[in-house]
Specification:
The protein has helices spanning 3-29, 50-54, 162-171; strands spanning 68-72, 77-81, 87-92, 103-106, 109-115, 121-131, 134-141, 157-160, 177-181. It is α+β, with helices and mostly antiparallel strands.
Length: 182
């Protein structure tokens, strides 16, 4: 190979590496519009703090600050957090078949009593996201059930007990931040 050919190959390699680096940067910065620009970063379980590893009820470290609702997808748990970052209540939920993407949202609408997308009468509906064309929010079945949804149907209702649904209803007013973490 001539000296000019090897220089050309080296130049092409440098351009290819720069292109791959740029595309990787673009992919990491590509956040869907509904999530906003300040989404919490995904964290692997190995990056959890010692408190999170020892106490599954511990508020996730990467969940923002101030008064907010925090929903952890991996543990199916919710925290209602007051303005001084003090957890007011935490509880387990039954997820829907369509999860929200990790990110920062806000409560967009509420309904006192309606029929859920699965046909179950529900109350204290607090909506905050859309994914795959499905509205996603917290709710409690009027009969108190928290059965897993039919995996064949696209549903967005994250089910709570009636007591937890009542607490969410009182806490999560329109505009309240909802932080979804992995």
């Amino acid at each position: 190979m001539s000296r000019s050919s090897s220089g050309f190959v080296a130049g092409l390699t440098a351009v290819a590496l720069a292109a791959v680096g740029f595309l990787a940067y673009q992919a990491s910065a590509n956040v869907p519009d509904q999530l906003g620009k300040d989404r919490p970063e995904a964290s692997a379980s190995s990056s959890k703090t010692p408190a999170e590893k020892s106490d599954p009820k511990a508020l996730p470290a990467e969940s923002g600050s101030g008064a907010r609702v925090v929903y952890a997808l991996d543990s199916d748990r919710v925290w209602l957090v007051g303005s001084r970052n003090k957890v007011q209540r935490t509880f387990e939920v039954t997820p829907s078949t369509v999860d929200p993407l990790p990110g920062k949202y806000a409560v967009t609408s509420r309904s006192g009593t309606i029929t859920g997308s699965d046909g179950v009468p529900i109350e204290h509906v607090v909506r905050f996201a859309n994914n795959e064309g499905v509205a996603i929010g917290f709710s409690a079945a009027v009969d108190g059930s928290t059965a897993s949804p039919d995996p064949e149907k696209k549903t967005g209702g994250i089910r709570e007990s009636r007591a937890d649904g009542s607490a969410m209803w009182k806490f999560a007013e329109i505009g309240r931040p909802v932080i979804v973490v992995p």
